[in-house]
Specification:
Elements: H1 2-15, H2 37-48, H3 53-67, H4 69-77, H5 89-115, H6 120-133, H7 143-170, H8 174-204, H9 206-219, H10 239-249, H11 254-267, H12 278-300
């Protein structure tokens, strides 16, 4: 972490945009100072009415996930090597990355509030629960496992937001489509950053990085919102219903999971990596064989039928 910190600082401006010129939620939402404010809200609500039930459910789950950002910032701050220098280095990355991500939840929350489709109090309860419950993604304080996780997770959120954008456009909501499109673009940049940082780690410490990758794949990448719940339910009870909706829509599926893993294998050039010890070679063998095995399982999985009503969504 100390070794690649200088590289990260040199690359920050490539992967994060200047705050003064970056997009903000108000760029997409109705302007409350405009004479057309109420007409704009009416148009927003009319377009939101045509969104499918599952799409609204997925959008709410995505929003809650994005709004749990304080959990993610504090988690990264505890990673070995990140808090080494409070005012610079990795903590600087952590704060600036968090600041960019923070806009996503702000934008989607305001959209959902204006849409009239959502019981905001129930959604807000779920958000507070998700932050209060914390999360355990199986990475501990290890930076290798954490950056493998963030590489994977940023790719997954890019896919999810991008497909929600496409479905919103298909349902006639061009505003929501634009919103999810710019969020997806942010996630793609952030994925490039974490993949790049991990590439440098593989160059410096290939064996330990390979073992970390193997370990994350053995225990499976869990989503940040895997503790998601509604009022009156136990930790994680809502998450399965949320992922069922995402699978029905094709927003994020088991096949996507496998394809992200394959993309990381290719990105980090694992097949041509040299100077691995016996442990590193065994870890690579496991990783290289895993996608084809998981793909066979994914192709046999049945799309779950709809049998759940979320407390978040007005009937």
């Amino acid at each position: 972490m100390v070794h690649i910190e200088k590289y990260m600082l040199e690359m920050m401006d490539t992967y994060l945009k200047p705050i003064d010129t970056n997009w903000q939620p108000s760029d997409f939402l109705p302007d409350s100072t405009s004479d057309t404010f109420f007409q704009d809200i009416k148009a927003l609500r009319e377009n939101a009415n045509d969104l499918s039930y599952d799409l609204v459910a997925v959008l709410i789950g995505d929003t809650i996930t994005e709004e749990a950002l304080p959990t993610y910032e504090s988690w990264l701050a505890m990673v070995d090597g990140v808090s080494r220098k409070e005012e610079g280095g990795w903590m600087r990355w952590n704060r600036h990355w968090t600041a960019e991500e923070n806009r996503h939840g702000d934008l989607l929350n305001k959209y959902l509030y204006l849409s009239g489709r959502v019981d905001m109090r129930q959604m807000e309860i779920s958000t507070q629960y998700l932050i209060a419950d914390g999360f355990d993604i199986g990475t501990g304080h290890d930076p290798y496992r954490n950056f493998i996780y963030t590489s994977f997770q940023e790719l997954a959120t890019n896919i999810s937001h991008r497909r929600v954008a496409s479905l919103a456009k298909k349902d006639g909501d061009t505003l929501l489509s634009k919103m999810c499109g710019v969020i997806a673009s942010d996630e793609a940049r952030h994925a490039k950053a974490y993949k790049d940082f991990m590439s440098k780690i593989f160059e410096v410490d290939p064996n330990e990085a390979m073992v970390a990758f193997e370990d994350m794949m053995r225990q499976k990448i869990v989503m940040p919102a895997h503790f998601l719940r509604e009022m009156g339910l136990k930790i994680g009870q809502t998450f399965g219903h949320f992922t069922d909706a995402a699978q029905r829509l094709g927003v994020y599926t088991a096949i996507d999971y496998v394809e992200i893993m394959q993309q990381l294998i290719e990105e980090w050039k694992l097949d041509s990596m040299r100077d691995l010890n016996e442990t590193g070679e065994k870890a690579r063998d496991y990783i290289m064989a895993l996608p084809s095995r998981l793909l066979r399982v994914a192709e046999r999985m049945k799309v779950p039928t709809m049998d759940y009503k979320f407390s978040w969504i007005h009937a």
